Amino acid sequence: MAAIRRGFLTAAPFGVATAAYAGVFMANRDRLPGRIATHFSAGGGADDYMSRPAALWTGCALIVGVGLLFTVMTLASRDSSASRLSAAVGSGTAFMVGYPLVVTVLVNTDVQDPAGVHLPLWHIAVLLAGGLATGALVWLLLNAGPRPEPAPPAPALSLARGEAAAWSRTMMSRALLTAAGAVALGGLCALVFGSLGTALPLLALGLMCAAFTCVRVSVDRRGVTVASTVLPRPRLALPLGSIVGADSVEVDAVGEFGGWGYRIRPKRRGVLLRSGEALSVRTAGGREYVVTVDDSATAAALLNGLTDRHARERG
Fold it and tell me: pTM for the complete prediction?
């Protein structure tokens, strides 16, 4: 029932936004010009247009499509905190998508020439405030739910004073590498056909994503380090003194974190290149870091041994 409630609170604002846009549009249909101003410059003047039917169906399709995406993300999430956040962000997005569409219809009403339509900039403040308020309301309406008790730490590998030990593994995501290659290929195609403004951002994005499809995870006397095998920065480093325990866990990247890459959730952080086996590290601040990597049980045992020895030496 909790999942259904979260799904409903995610989908409902998009339903309201769709009904509001379609209702206002149809109520003013005969008072709208044949072409409607649908995009506005930084100064508020119109700079792009659509026919009335195209504006109606495009707007409705946009709201419904984004709504389906957020609803599926909310229902697919196994973690109550993650689904609560998804529902809140989704409902705020519903307002931020629906509000400008409705306003666009209103500013085009009774206009003879759409080139003269002007959208006051104060609507941006209403857009941001309304989106934040809607998201905050849904966040408050949803209970976070009890978090599962963390699993006990993996057995610690016994280490004598002065004994050195280290562990390291490299992980590569073929799915992310394929996506990065597709984006870069799109950039090359745009370059061939002469669209330099489109090609350069796509090429830069593709190369940047490709650099983070392969990471090295290391455990040694310094703690845990996760870094790209191509670029030295950015990197995730957890000092040994901040770690209280580690374990090997199974993680669902989409269900628990909403996707792949570096993910942020309440009290949780994740470096996720896939679903499955992962190293879970708990810090003194009450935060959990999850890194998908093979042979995570060995990494957890070594990290627990290093943490225990560090605590004994400091004590």
Answer: 0.53
